[in-house]
Every structure is written in C-alpha cells, then in structure tokens.
Write a structure and sequence with these properties.
Helices cover about 0% and strands about 80% of the residues. With about 400 residues, the chain is an all-beta fold.
Length: about 400
Amino acid sequence: MLVALCAAATSQAQTPPSEVINNQIQLGDVFATQTLNVVEVEDGVNAETSASGNALVGSVVDADLSLTSNQTMAGPAIAQTPVNVTADMGAASQINTTAMGNTADVQATRGTLTGVITQIATFAPEVTARGMLEADEASAGDVGLATTALANSASVGLTNGSAGVRVNQTSAAPVLADGGAIIGYVSGTADVSGLAVGNTASLVGTDTSAARAATWQSNTSTLVQASQFTAYGNAQTPTTSATAAGNIAAAVNDGPLLDLTASQYNQAYVRAQAEGSSYQFGAGTASAYGVGNSVLAGDNGEAVVLDNVQLNTGGGVEAIASFGGAEGYDAYSHASAVGNDATAYSCSSCAGSMSIDSRQTNSADVGATATTNVGSGRLITGTSSAVGNNASFYVTRPGS
C-alpha cells in the first residue's frame, strides 16, 4: 500500500497541520522474481526487482504534518533476479534486487513534522533478496549489482524544516541479501554489493533544519546476513562488498540542533561475507563490514545531543573478506566487525558543541577474517579489525 501526501499553503501559521493515521498489516507472501536471458546487447542490461510488505510515503511543502503510522509484517518478502548473459553485456549494466518488510519515507520542506512511526516484523517471515549474474563467457563494460534486504526501514527528510519524531522498530525476521556475479571479461568497473539490516532508521536535514528524534530498535531474529561471491576471468576494477547490521540509527543535519535519543538491542547472528576472485585484475577489492548496533549523530551546525544505549548479545558478529587472483596489479581485502558502534560529530567552524551520554554493552563474540591470495602483483593490502565496543566523538571543520 502506498500513501502519498502533498500540501501547500501561503502561510504556515494560518494552516492547520495535516494529520495522517496509517495502519498497515501484511499477512500473506510478497514475492517478486525477474529473469533475464540475454545473448548480446549494445548499451547494457538493466533490471529492477523489489518486494515490499508495507510501504508508506508522505510529504508536505510549506505546511506541517502530524503522523501516526503502524506497520506489521507477518509474511515473507522475497525478491529474486537471476540474469544470464551468453556473449556481450554492453557498455554499462545495473541490476538491483530489493526485499523489504516495512518501509516509511516521510519528507518536510519548510514545515514541521511530528509523529510516531512503529514497525514490527514478526518471527514468521523471512526477508530475502537474491541477485545473481551468470556470464562466465561474456564480456562487459561497467557492471553494477546491488542486493538489499531490510526488515524495517524508516527515513525522515527535512529541507529547511523541523521535526520531533519517534521511531519504534521490532524485528524477529531472518534477513538475507545473497548473490554475486560470474563474468568472463570486464573492461571497466564491476561493483557487486550486498546490504542486510534488521532495523534501520535515518534522518537527513539540510538547508538550516532542526530535529529531535528518538529511536527504539530491537532485533531478536536468528540471522542477518549479507553474502556476495564473485569470479572473473579478467577484470579491470572488480569490487565485492557486503554489509550486515542488526540495528542502524543514523541522523545527520545541517542546522542549529540535532538531538538524538537511541536505544538498540540486538541478539541476531550478524554475518557479512564478501569473496572475490579474478584470474587477471587491475585493482581488485573485497570488503566486509558487520555490526550488531550502529548509531551516528552528526550536525554541520551548532549543537549535537546524543543519548545512546546499545546492547549486543546472542549470536555474535562476523566479517569475512577474501580476494584472490593469479596475476595483476593491486589487491585489497578488508574485514571489520563491531559489536556496538557509536559516532557523533559537530562543526567547529560553527561554534559547535556536543553533549554525549553513551552506554555500550557487548556480550557476543566478534570476529573478522581477511584473506588475500595473489600469484603476482604490485601492491597487496589486507586489514582485519574486530572491536567489541567502539565510540568516536569529535568536533571538526566540515571537509577536514
């Protein structure tokens, strides 16, 4: 279900707020499958496949909005995109596969947004995205393949606006973003990525906005996994990446105030796995990032206030990255795993300040493994980092 809102007024003071009460319950299966069988094309191959249980879109311009939204997903959301190419993929190709349980996207321009967004993904459904490109004897110019799976997703956008919002997210659904690519020859860039998140909430404010936001996120599922595998005969710039997170709360603003209260609990096993290989390569990269709970609060303005509580327990966090090749130039493997991660920043050139109260507890295993196997090359780089609790708070000049 899609709800679109639009309002305009010559004077905000004379216009009462628009009020929306949204209730959505999805009980059945939601699935989308697209198959492309291609022999040869000139320009490229493009595919977009998405499956979503409940979706809300709302916006106001020169007006105010009061929103109450309740979304419950109790059935699976599955999106699949198998692509088979025999000879030539053409100059530039992009293949996107997205599966989502509950989504809410709300925007306010020169207005004020207030409300509560509640999203629940029960234990019964799976949220799975699979994108696979098989072109083992084919050639290609530039190739992009993105596979995304999100149980709950809420986003708020402000343009010269203000907000006072609360986001409540609960997920017990397994989340999987799985896929990869097999290509004979890539003359340009091959970018294959996977993203899997249990709960994600974001706020972006621009053009002198101000916001107070509170997020409460609980992920009790068994698994959140992003896994991407690639193999090339000869590739100029192949990149394979995977990002998996139990909970993400991210707020960035350009204005006088950003006030974020975040509470996160994760007990899912979080796994990010990126494995790539190319017999011959120019610059090959494999990167994996896994995190139980992640919070970001940043304001390129005067003040950041962050009250943060994070608890990661249960299944653990694991990141695995590997790249291999027979001969080439530069090879990189990066694996990073974090139990709890918190970052906040403010703008020093704006007389910025921070007020931080952050508490992190991790009782789960955290592991990172990076492997690079190259026959001959110019530069070989590998990094592997595992951290239980990580916090970074700083005041800095934008762009520095």
